[in-house]
Design brief:
cytoplasm, alpha+beta, Exodeoxyribonuclease 7 small subunit, 2 helices
Length: 82
């Protein structure tokens, strides 16, 4: 019996990106059947969304927008500072 892959949401950013790269190589090779290509495309799309969400979460932790007295953005500060 084949080992089942973990859910995409459980993958680290690095593991998700590696799997996405494998999918792109497989699709670009032209060796996948139409049905397999459709399945791979769906998995790739889910992996892309997962990677983007993790990057956005990391970005939010790193910095937040700081606003000036006029209400306009005036720069950024580390996320954990007031």
């Amino acid at each position: 019996m084949a080992e089942q892959a973990p859910p995409i949401s459980d993958l680290s950013f690095e593991a998700a990106l590696k799997r996405l790269e494998e999918i792109v190589r497989r699709l670009e090779s032209g060796e996948a059947s139409l049905d397999e290509s459709i399945e791979l495309y769906g998995e790739g799309d889910a992996l892309k969304q997962q990677c983007e969400a993790r990057l956005q979460a990391a970005q939010a932790k790193i910095e937040k927008i700081q606003f000036g007295r006029d209400g306009q953005p005036s720069g950024t500060v580390p996320f954990d500072q007031a």
